[in-house]
């Protein structure tokens, strides 16, 4: 259950990170509100996950999910560069997330 909570926390991390762009640095009230709500949900779920998972592993996976999702959506939504190197390094983060999951008894 903790891994599921961590996954959902990571998805909400993507939401709030992308929300920063849509809220223009939290200056637009409606997107800013959604960003803050997503941040709160993400943090609460992360806190619940670390009740059963090592904090270092959980934090690394949480930030990894957020980084991969945010970088990918940056390419898809905001025309950020989709260079081969950038995609390769996003892939390295994915390998790290999967590796941490496997070595932490997450199967």
From TrEMBL:
Keywords: Cell membrane, Membrane, Transmembrane, Transmembrane helix, Transport. Its main location: membrane. The keyword Transmembrane applies. InterPro entries: EmrE-like, Small_drug/metabolite_transptr, Small_multidrug_res. The keyword Protein biosynthesis does not apply. GO terms for cellular component: plasma membrane. GO terms for biological process: transmembrane transport. The chain crosses the membrane at residues 33-50, 57-78, 84-103. It is a multi-pass membrane protein. This is DMT family transporter.
